[in-house]
Design goal:
Elements: H1 6-19, H2 28-53, H3 61-78, H4 83-105, H5 112-130, E1 147-148, E2 151-152, H6 156-178, H7 181-188, H8 193-197, H9 203-229, H10 239-253, H11 257-281, H12 289-303, H13 308-313, E3 342-353, E4 356-367, E5 371-375, H14 382-389, E6 397-402, E7 405-406, H15 412-417, E8 420-422, H16 435-440, H17 451-455, H18 460-476, H19 492-504, E9 510-514, H20 522-537, E10 541-545, H21 549-555, E11 558-563, E12 566-571, H22 573-577, H23 580-587
Parallel strand pairs: 5-10, 5-11, 8-9, 9-10
Antiparallel strand pairs: 1-2, 3-4, 3-6, 6-7, 11-12
Helix pairs in contact: 2-6, 2-9, 2-10, 2-11, 3-4, 3-5, 3-9, 4-9, 10-11, 11-12, 18-19
Length: 591
C-alpha cells in the first residue's frame, strides 16, 4: 500500500486544525488546550534550533516567556498601551535580554552551559517574584485582551487562530533560517567549533544568533500568553516550566522544527489527561501524575530516541533532494598565486604543551603551484603543525607568514579568509546533513548573507550560487552520485574526498590535506592524485600529510620530514627517499 504524501498529511492536519474550532460539537476545553499547545510550540521550536540543531542545551527558556509576558502586562495595565503596540516592545525587551544573557552563556561549553541556563532561569524567576513593579508573587491582573477591529479575542475559539497563525509563521521562518548560509553555520556547531572556524564560521556569532532567535520565539509566546490568560505571575516562568519546554523539543524530535510542535501537543494533552484521569482511577492519585508522566516520557524516548516526528515522517516517501541550479553564476574567485612565488613561510616554529615539545624549531616553505609533502612517523608532530598553520592552536614561538603577512596570531576563521583551507586527520562532517550541505559550508566566506535576509528568503539568489558551487566541487572530486546522501552514510574514503570538496569550496590559494588517501582503494588513490595534479596545474598550492610513501613520492615536488617534532630532512622526493636519517626514522636503519 502506497504511503501518504507528507504534503497531503500536512494539508490534512492544517485543514483539521482550521475546521475543528468551527464545529459546534468540538468542546471549548479542547480548543483551549490546543491554544496552550500552540503557545508551548513557539518555545519548543526555538529550543529545537537551539538545542537539537545548535547543540546548546537550555533549561531557562521559560524566563524569556516571562520577559515577553511581563513587558506587555506592565505597558497595558500601567501605561494604557494597546496589546498590539506592546508586541514590538515585548520582542525588543526579550531580544535585548537574550542578547545580554547570550553574550555570557554561549561562551560556556560542556556541562557548564546547561548549568548556566539553570542558574539564570532560577534568578529571573525570583526576580519576577520580588519586584514590586511586577506585582510580586501575586503578579499583574486585568490585562486587556487582544483586539482585531471591533472584536476582542476573549473566547478560546477566537484566539485559537491567532496563536496558530504565529506558530505557522515561526515554522516557516525557522525552516528558512536552517535552509541558508547561517543555518548551515548553526548546524555545523554540532560538528565542533574548530572545524566550523576553519571554514570561516564565526561560531560565537552563530551561537548568539540562534540563542536570540529562540529567545524571541519564547518572548512572542509570553506576549500571547499574557493576553490569553489576562494575568501573569512568576509561577509559569520557573525552572520546572523550562524543563518541560525542553522535554517537548526532545520528545517531538530535537532536530526537526515540526518536532517542537508535535512534542508540545503530546506533552500538553498527556499532562492534562493524567492530571484529570488519575484521581478518578486511583484515590489520592493526583500526586502520582508527575511520576506516571515521567515514566511514559522515558518509555517514549526509549523506543523513539530521535523523537516522535521522525516516526511520523516515515509514513511518507523520502524528502525531495535540495534543488541545484547549475546555471547560477559562479561565486567570485581570487587570482591564484604566481607559480614559484613565496606563499607560506614557516620560520622556527615551536609548540610546547607543558613539558612536551610537540613541534621543535621547524622551518620550511611552500611556493605557488607546488605540492609539498609533510611526512614522518606517528607522533612526529605533523597534525600539530597543521593546527598551527590554520590557527586551531597558536605557536609557542616562531613566525608563520602567508603571502608576506604574519598569521600565527590570527584565529582560524581569519586565516581561512586569507585563502587557506584544510581537511582533518579524523573526518569532520556533520552526519545528519547531506554531502551537499556539508560541502556548502566551505563556501561560507564567499557569500556574505545575514540571518535576517535568510529568515525572509531574501538570500535566494546568493544561496543558489553557494549550492551550485558545492555541487560543482562534489562532481569535481567524483562524488556526484552521493551528493544528496547523509554524510554519515559515506564510507571513510568517500568522507575524506567529501572533505576535499568542502575545502575547495573555500577557493583556497593553499590547500592543507591531512592524510587524504587514508581509507582509499588503489583506483581511488589514483583518481585523487590526478585531481591534486590538476589543482596544481590551476595554481593551487598543496601541503599534505600522508603515510602512503608511494603516493607521496610520485606526487610531491618537495618533501619535509619530521621526527619527534623536529625537521630531520628536506628536499626533492628522490633525495629524501635515499636519506639515511629518514631511513633511520622510518625503518630503524639503512640495513
Amino acid at each position: 500500500m502506497r504511503a501518504a504524501s507528507p504534503r497531503l498529511i500536512g494539508l490534512a492536519a492544517v485543514a483539521l486544525m482550521g475546521v475543528a474550532p468551527l464545529l459546534p460539537f468540538t468542546p471549548a476545553f479542547w480548543i483551549t488546550l490546543a491554544g496552550y499547545a500552540g503557545l508551548s510550540s513557539l518555545v519548543a521550536i526555538g529550543l529545537v534550533l537551539l538545542t537539537g540543531v545548535g547543540g546548546m542545551t537550555s533549561f531557562g527558556q521559560a524566563a524569556f516567556v516571562g520577559f515577553g509576558a511581563y513587558t506587555t502586562a506592565v505597558l497595558t495595565t500601567s501605561f494604557g498601551f494597546s496589546p498590539w503596540a506592546t508586541l514590538p516592545v515585548s520582542l525588543l525587551t526579550t531580544g535585548l535580554a537574550a542578547l545580554a544573557i547570550g553574550l555570557v552563556t554561549v561562551r560556556l561549553s560542556g556541562h557548564y552551559l546547561p548549568l548556566g541556563t539553570i542558574a539564570w532561569g532560577i534568578s529571573f524567576f525570583y526576580l519576577f517574584g520580588n519586584l514590586a513593579a511586577l506585582g510580586g508573587y501575586d503578579g499583574i491582573g486585568g490585562i486587556p485582551p487582544i483586539r482585531i477591529g471591533p472584536w476582542d479575542l476573549v473566547d478560546a475559539r477566537a484566539i485559537y487562530y491567532l496563536i496558530w497563525l504565529f506558530v505557522l509563521i515561526a515554522v516557516v521562518l525557522s525552516h528558512n533560517l536552517l535552509d541558508s548560509r547561517m543555518g548551515r553555520a548553526i548546524r555545523a556547531l554540532r560538528g565542533g567549533g574548530a572545524f566550523a572556524e576553519s571554514f570561516g564560521v564565526d561560531t560565537a556569532e552563530a551561537k548568539l544568533v540562534v540563542f536570540v532567535y529562540a529567545g524571541l520565539l519564547a518572548g512572542l509566546s509570553g506576549w500571547l500568553y499574557a493576553h490569553v490568560q489576562r494575568s501573569v505571575s512568576p509561577s509559569p516562568f520557573g525552572l520546572s516550566a523550562g524543563i518541560e519546554y525542553l522535554l517537548m523539543a526532545v520528545l517531538g524530535g530535537s532536530g526537526y522544527v515540526l518536532g517542537g510542535v508535535v512534542g508540545a501537543g503530546v506533552v500538553a494533552v498527556l499532562n492534562d489527561q493524567l492530571q484529570n484521569g488519575l484521581p478518578k482511577l486511583i484515590e489520592g492519585g493526583g500526586n502520582l501524575d508527575a511520576i506516571v508522566f515521567g515514566i511514559l516520557l522515558v518509555a517514549a524516548l526509549q523506543f523513539a530516541r530521535a523523537g516522535l516526528w521522525p516516526m511520523l515522517r516515515r509514513l511518507g516517501p523520502p524528502a525531495a533532494p535540495k534543488s541545484v541550479d547549475l546555471s547560477a553564476p559562479p561565486l567570485p574567485r581570487t587570482p591564484p598565486p604566481d607559480k614559484g612565488a613565496p606563499l607560506l613561510e614557516v620560520e622556527g616554529v615551536s609548540k610546547r604543551f607543558g613539558g612536551l615539545v610537540a613541534v621543535n624549531d621547524v622551518s620550511f616553505s611552500v611556493r605557488g603551484g607546488e605540492i609539498v609533502g609533510l611526512i614522518g612517523p606517528n607522533g612526529a608532530g605533523k597534525s600539530t603543525t597543521f593546527n598551527l598553520l590554520t590557527g586551531v592552536t597558536s605557536a609557542t614561538s616562531g613566525a608563520i607568514r602567508f603571502r608576506g603577512e604574519r598569521i600565527d596570531r590570527l584565529p582560524a576563521r581569519k586565516i581561512a579568509e586569507r585563502g587557506i583551507a584544510r581537511t582533518f586527520q579524523h573526518v569532520k562532517l556533520v552526519p545528519g546533513m547531506t554531502v551537499l550541505e556539508n560541502v556548502a559550508i566551505g563556501a561560507h566566506l564567499r557569500a556574505r548573507v545575514g540571518a535576517l535576509s535568510s529568515l525572509f528568503r531574501l538570500d535566494r539568489a546568493r544561496e543558489a550560487e553557494i549550492i551550485a558551487e558545492a555541487a560543482r566541487q562534489i562532481a569535481r572530486v567524483g562524488l556526484a552520485e552521493h551528493m544528496h546522501k547523509p554524510a554519515g552514510s559515506l564510507a571513510l574514503g568517500q568522507a575524506r574526498v567529501a572533505e576535499i570538496a568542502r575545502a575547495l569550496c573555500l577557493d583556497p590559494a593553499l590547500l592543507l590535506l591531512d592524510e587524504p588517501a587514508a581509507g582509499l582503494r588503489f583506483a581511488e588513490k589514483k583518481q585523487l592524485a590526478e585531481l591534486l595534479k590538476r589543482l596544481r596545474a590551476e595554481g593551487t598550492s598543496i601541503l599534505l600529510v600522508e603515510h602512503d610513501m608511494d603516493f607521496v613520492m610520485t606526487l610531491t615536488d618537495h618533501i619535509v620530514v619530521l621526527d619527534f617534532g623536529a625537521k630531520i630532512a628536506e628536499g626533492a622526493p628522490k633525495i629524501v627517499a635515499e636519506s639515511p636519517v629518514v631511513l633511520e626514522a622510518y625503518l630503524g636503519g639503512v640495513e
